[in-house]
């Protein structure tokens, strides 16, 4: 078979995991606990849905093409919100809207790399980032993290070659959940600026960061947009996963290159999703604060349950935002463990092998739990099932 772009990478992990459910029956007294994906399962709040419905019915332009880089009012509102969140000044022409944050990453990579170039990714990595690099012929250079899932700047420096074009970070992290300290993010920014690289910082989960202060000071740096490519998603904050609305903040010149990609792939972001994001920015700050409090309470519930698993040999590696990342104690690889958990425990989670380079032994000992859709009772039930395992 002729080698193709898509054949260069692996199957979508979440879709692969869902196939493990085929033919499995879950009794009423032990329903499936699905902690495989970090996507809200509830719809947006009613007030937002009503506003979206009214917009779709009454505004003809809700169904038309719009500007490739997004609607001006949303770009302006997001620029102001970013400025407020990071205590900085951000202009509307430094912001573009995309069809989801994955597209934001794909567009940025397409604008700054050529086939054969390299991008440094900390491991465990977000698998869709790795998949896109594979499909574009860009080599993902894995940057191993420490026992707290934090990457090291000096180790990254040693990986830089004449082919390196960018370093990509995710904070709060997917899959590890960890919040990168502000000084660590700044150190990576300084490294990228010094070496002429772009620093991509995916902050999809920033609305659920436990810190009350700005999570980093990159937007406060003079000429920040010459180095930083900030990626964001409205999917988690407003439960707009099905509407695919994301964003990029960077230099206008780079956005002009990114515009070529966006125009070719999707022409423009969807109008209803953009309306919803704009309405949310203007009206839902208190609601999002409540959602954040709920996620942080679920994070606390995970932390309270950890000693039970620690006694069984489990080790918590990372926790925050939507994710808990564990090292399991069993003498079987995590991909086998994850498959067996479906029929034997009624639990669907993702193995560390989906977030690590092929053959990396660390991935065979790790699993990711996406806990955001579980309440405290559901979290307790999940830990009951994990606690009772024996393989």
For the biggest β-sheet, the strand order reads: 2-8-7-6-5-3-4
CATH architecture of the largest domain: 3-Layer(aba) Sandwich
Characterize the overall form. Answer: globular
Question: What's the CATH superfamily of the largest domain, by name?
Answer: Type I PLP-dependent aspartate aminotransferase-like (Major domain)
Q: What structural category do the secondary elements indicate?
A: alpha/beta
List SSEs in N-to-C order.
Answer: HEHHEHEHEHEHEEHEHHHEEHEEEH
Mean pLDDT: 96
Q: Ends: how far apart? A: 39 Å
Give the number of domains. 2
The whole-angstrom Rg is 21 Å
* Portion in beta strands: 15-25%
Summary, kept brief:
The strands form 3 sheets. Strands 2-8-7-6-5-3-4 form a 7-stranded mixed beta sheet, sandwiched between helices.
